[in-house]
């Protein structure tokens, strides 16, 4: 995850309010690169680069780098606007 995306996540007041009770670890895969994201009290606490052996996660989302680029634009097109839509 690029620094710009991390800053966007941590500075979004609505996202912080909605996720304020969330505590979890999840994995984001960018192609073959696994990233472990730790969220505590709704805030991204840390992002670690893998690979990880036997590290428990709540969920994982993996996509090709090109897919993440389409998802992370400021106004994504329909079908790229939501992780479930992807």
Gist of the model:
With 86 residues, the chain is α+β, with helices and mostly antiparallel strands.
Describe it.
- This protein has about 90 residues and is of the alpha+beta class.
- About 25% of the residues lie in helices and about 30% in strands.
- It contains three helices and four strands, in the order H-H-E-E-E-E-H.
- It has a four-stranded mixed beta sheet with strand order 3-2-1-4.
- Strand 2 (about 35-40) and strand 3 form a beta hairpin.
- It starts with a helix and ends in a 15-residue tail after the last helix.
Number of contiguous helices: 3
The number of strands is 4
Helix content: 25-40%
Q: What average pLDDT do the residues reach?
A: 84
Euclidean distance between termini CA atoms: 18 Å
**How does the helix and strand content classify structurally?**
alpha+beta
As residue ranges, the low-confidence spans are none
Taking Cα atoms only, what radius of gyration do you get, to the nearest Å? 13 Å
**Order of SSEs:** HHEEEEH
The major pleated sheet works out as:
4 strands, mixed
Spatial shape: globular
Q: Which strand order spans the largest sheet, edge to edge or round the barrel?
A: 3-2-1-4
